[in-house]
Here is the input.
Amino acid sequence: MLYYDQYHVPETLDEAFDLMHTNGGNYKVLAGATDLLPWAREGRGGDVNYESMIDISKINDLSKWQLQGKRINLGANVTISQLLNNPFLRKHIPVMAKSAVWFADDQIREQATLGGNLVNASPAADATPPMLAMNAELRLERKQKGKIIHRKLPLDEFLTGPGKTRLEAGELVTRVECDSMLGYGSAFEKVGHRRSLVLSTVCLAALVSLSDDGQVFEDVRLALGGVGPVPIRLKESEACLISQPIDSDLIDKSAVLAVKHIQSRTRQEYRREVVYNFVKRGILGACKDLNTTFADIDTDMKHRGNYG
Amino acid sequence: MNAPLRKFPKQKRGRGVAAGWYGIARTATIDRAAAWAELDDGGTAKIITGVTEIGEGILTVLAQIVADELGIRPKDVTIGDNDTARSPEAAHAGATRQTYMIGNAVALACREARQRLVKEIAQKWQVSEDDIICSNGIIRTLDHSQSMTMSEAVKYCKNCGVVPVGSGTFTANHTGLDPENGSGNPWQAYVYGAQVAEVEVDTETGEVQVLGVWASHDVGRAVNPQGVEGQIEGGVVMAVGQTLMEDYKQEGGYPTSINFAKYILPTSLDVPQVNSVIIEDPDPLSPLGVKGIGEPSMIPTAPAIINAIYDAVGVRIHSLPATPEKVLAALREKRERADTHEMLA
Amino acid sequence: MASLDIQMTVNGRPVKQSVSPHLRLLDFLREELHWTGSKEGCGAGECGSCSVFVDGVLMKSCLMPVAKAQHSEIETIEGLEEQGKLNVLQQAFQKTGASQCGYCIPGMMMAATAALRANPYAGREEIKERLGGNICRCTGYQKMFEATELARDVMNGKLTIEVLKEENEEGPFIGSNSFRIDTSSKVTGALKYAGDMVMPQMLHMQVLRSPYPHAEILELDTSEAEAMAGVEAVVTHRDVKGIDGFGVFTDDQPVLARGKVRYVGEAIAAVAAEDLLTAKEALKKIKVRYRQLVAITKTEDAIKPGAVIIHDDVPDNIVMHIPIRKGNVVKGMAEADFVIEETYYTQAVEHAYLEPEAGLAYLDADGTLVIQSPSQNITHHRQKLAKILDMPVNRVRMIMSPVGGGFGGKEDMHYQGILALAVLKCRRPVRYVFTREESIIASAKRHPFSIKYQLGLNRDGLIQASKIHMLADGGAYNCSTEGVMRKAAILAAGPYAIENLMVDAIGIYTNNTPSGAMRSFGAMQSQFATECHLDLCAEKLEMDPVELRRKNFFKEGDETHTRQELGSVSMLEVFNSALDLADWETGMSNSRGATRSDLAQSGNRPPCTLGARQIPLETIPTGQAS
Here is the structure.
């Protein structure tokens, strides 16, 4: 159970920082509470006690978003439901909607925030691979000597391990910035033990942009979750395809390169095979999203079993 | 609604079938249940019995039985709480026994109560008791020459100084098993079931989705067919869970799947369309002929699914649950054997 | 003690209350306002039974600190009714028979309401997705989908309200789809389960449970806990005045651990205190000193010579062995054309009824001990309690509270005795509500089985002999192990006429969670093996698996495996009707999925691909937010 004596709902960032300051160390910041409350239970965090809860979900600035050049700037409090349903977000970062449809369920999507999900840093988090694939950067702010100062960290540097991030004491993630993916095709693959409200065993985000004639990969972004302490970008797999003509052998090679990144402690064999399949499925799916046809692409298991 | 076959070659479909059987009420030991019935003011009825409604719908089944026995309607029936200080023993909820044991006990109790009422009315009308029928809240002679409402009849009966109460006790004469060879008569009523399952296997992730189940079950006599369907649908889905995703794990005696995040139950997105057909082979040894469905509904499902997986992708999973990991590993093994075979050929 | 002033509107009524700040919205609604319709099925956002509308958005109230809902408008299940009459959706649930135990129903109704509010024309796939955060364990969801679609069509004027009426107002009623008599209490959230019940002067119980699978208790000191302010009673095995021990077949389980613990989660001591927090704090003050013993977690280890003894009176760790012997199996196998062997395994399964165990116990005015709990066998429990408490049987009263799902898991008396001891000690009402985690680790599971199966068959498919050897992990206490072995032995060989049989079902003690009664126990596991094995045999015999079964099915007058003469046998009729219903295409079982023609007919649902409710971008009205 989660126990606390005070519950604060600041309306501005400034207020939030002041509260954090006056409460010394004995506070917990929360947004949606959808990770915290399930954790504070027998068999996991157990009975957890704080003096103060600081609920930042009502800070208006953190719920807004805008297009800045070729980047989308999202407030950390953007909910998963907004990522799923909002037309503007679906236009610019549709891969988030594809991942959001797998995220928990309707109710939790309304309560859970993007910032909260990233800070929770679960190795299997569904929102993280797409964000990594879109070159996400986090804006971290804190108040020092009466002034709010900020710094930026790329998402892949922010996440350091299961449940671990570079968030420092007194800091809040206020914004998540990522590429606008207009013109890209996207796909999201996930497998768990059932079809709703389930932890990912493996999840993958794939983004692809093609040449005008649809025959050459202009850009490829691939990111994987559930296979190690943190979700990762598959840079080698991407590099092997970029600027290359679309070809099934090459896609297969790209998939083989991804497999060696599996660092999970359990079910390694399973994850290796699924990753290999997902990379191919993801790339093809992202291409299909652009309505390209592949009459002659046959990626049917050319190297099945030989992915090392 | 037709579910079109997907053109995605990595998903493969298959079908499997399985049969099953089960015994009704307590195993290899005499079973018993009792009930009290009273035809009450307003032509309603009060039924007291140690009935344990756990969601399967037994209360409604009893109300329907009472309605037919007494000639009233289910909404006229009040069933008392299950309370050791207030209701007669009807034993437990389990062994698919309640419709059989308590249904019959209640029917017997109703017959006694009805008889007390009918005796007074028969005397009033100067007809034989066999000449009287109770139905839809009316009591009348077969030829319709005399009639009154059940409400009036109860009032009349009580004015004669007779409260139309009854009690019933029903026995199932099961015997124990011989300790050496197991011979004996563990049940007097048996039920049979069979199910067909259709699955789709994703050969890239090992996921199995059960798309349809066609179930046929002998229930003796269906008191509430929709309720029987509900038990079949629920039983099938519980079995789907156990076949594909549920696994209570312990390591060295320490439980590790202790919450619903780790212990995976089927959600609305995991369930097959369940199609049911009810077969009625009435039990000849009991007043009503009813048998049961609560547990038999989930016996053929798991093997039907496992057989369907084999039909789809040629692997037999012999340990439950057939998780995506197990299915994919079996597929991989099959491929490797085929490759080796090819190499050696 | 710190407090928080909460103001909100609940079901249209303004509410103002000062509460402990750490309450969740669910606690506020249930414990402070007594709107008990919303349930706590898991407390971790996994089951949806706590779903309520917060400012028009459906949320899981167990995941919401109450302060988050400050100044909000809350709608709960109790708000759906219209002037005491069921609304269209509630009537639809009644019409399709979509409510069984009722525990998931409030949350499910809220989800269905949310679905139709979000999209009044939602199709089945979208309805399924929108109910995807709500678990039901009883119904299989199908009638809930049907109910939601029915309500949708009535609300859209596609169907008239007449379709929601009961089909048969006049008898005969046997054979008719009469409305369930308990549906209205369930779809309105009005029905009170044990965890919803409160009484004046009621205390709250918490139970200290074993952290080890097998250990001796060297010291058990409750003095510090007893001395705590707010603690009214602490109970241990020492408080048992009669003959300790309960169970279904043997009374091998003490109410509270006596001298040793045999599984992780076994109850050791309990505290009854003024509030839950105090009770939990008091548990921490109970001092226990353990000496860990070797824990047996595999059945093979339990029956090895020299294995640690789990129950002193059962030195070989074998709870029950049920044999069936008929004819001459050795001869039968020798004469068979094919002998096919395989081993099958089934796992431990959790009942996962949506209602975690709960009980409210108190002393009647005349001193009778009363226990209200969702017990599946109050008669049996009362007998055990009377013996344990050394009280006359009619001075112990057990009342069955509405059961939010049982499936055999509420057949064991694993907490009612503890409540009884506490009430007798402090003479005040005591309530104990399990968390989901507690329910999972403390209560019995389905027996895991390993089944060695050998069938001898003739070339033409007739079964000559059947040899089935089953080992079941009974866990730490008997519970229903004896009954499970018996049922497994009797039914294992399936509905097939077999002359030569050797069946053994052996239930074994281990230090795992006790295995007990669970829906179709013994039969589900053994017949899983039988029906998989028959398909395997059909393949080896190059025979149609349907024909193989038909050839061997019981017929009227046949002798069963326990040598009982069967009366009428509907097996063939049942089997054929299932195949007809499915339009089954005849054929061998050599994995012909790729070529068979009876796939994807009506009666299937489409595979779930998610995204059914994703409205194409172009159709979203501009200006509409999430």
Residues 1-7 of chain B have pLDDT under 50 and may be disordered. Chain B touches chain A at residues 9-10, 204-207, 209, 244-245, 258-259, 261, 264-270, 323-325, 328-329, 332, 335-336, 339 (CB under 8 Å).
